[in-house]
Amino acid sequence: MQKIKLTTFVLFFSLLTKSSFAILEVTKLPYKDAEIEKIYKLDNGKFIYIEQFVRGHIIWEYDPEKDEFKEISKVWAFIDLASKCEMVDGHNIYFANILEYWFGGGTRIDDPEIRIFDLYDESPWRDTDLGITPSMNYAKEFCTFYRPYYIKEK
């Protein structure tokens, strides 16, 4: 009797844990050989793919109903995606670094500002950000973050 209970528990537990990570491997890609780092599932059922490319990250939206990808924007360094944040207007916002150059050349790459952008901002820059944060720990106090469906193993 105890073996039946244990077997039932193991089967039930394995079903529960697998359902929360429905996409453990990337089965759809925006194009062949895209290097996907993270995938998020939005509240509306669409997916956000974060692709690593030679000059930063590309943010893609995948619509499973239409089975198509749409490139949203490019940033120097994507950090994380939140559904909402206190004191920040908008829904579905992300945190990223953008590469800003000084007028005579050069940049600050060691400690760039963490900017907050609307997910569908096609050209994220200093004049389109929704705000900045001193750190992601600070942001976690005020924001509700999506849990990634997929994270590429390093």
Notable traits:
about 150 residues, alpha+beta, five-stranded antiparallel sheet, 2 helices, about 15% helix, about 35% strand
Please describe what this structure looks like.
The strands form 2 sheets. Strands 4-3-2-1-10 form a 5-stranded antiparallel β-sheet, with no helix packed on it. It has a 5-stranded antiparallel β-sheet with strand order 8-7-6-5-9, with helices on one face. It is of the alpha+beta class. Helices cover about 15% and strands about 35% of the residues. Mean pLDDT is about 85; it is low at about 5-25. The chain has helices at about 1-20, 135-140, and strands at about 35-40, 45-55, 55-65, 70-75, 75-85, 95, 115-120, 130-135, 145, 150. The protein is globular. The chain is built from 2 helices and 10 strands. The protein has one domain. The longest helix has 19 residues, at about 1-20.
Task: Note the topology.
Elements: H1 2-20, E1 35-41, E2 47-53, E3 56-63, E4 68-75, E5 77-85, E6 93-97, E7 114-118, E8 131-133, H2 136-142, E9 143-145, E10 150-151
Antiparallel strand pairs: 1-2, 1-10, 2-3, 3-4, 5-6, 5-9, 6-7, 7-8
Q: What is the ordering of alpha helices and beta strands?
A: HEEEEEEEEHEE
Roughly what fraction of the amino acids lie in strands?
35-45%
Most strands sheet: 5 strands, antiparallel
Radius of gyration: 19 Å
Q: What is the spatial order of strands in the main beta sheet? A: 4-3-2-1-10
Q: Tell me, rounded to a whole number, the average pLDDT.
A: 85
User: Helical stretch count?
Assistant: 2
In terms of per-residue confidence, which ranges show pLDDT below 50 for 5 or more consecutive residues? 5-24
Number of domains: 1
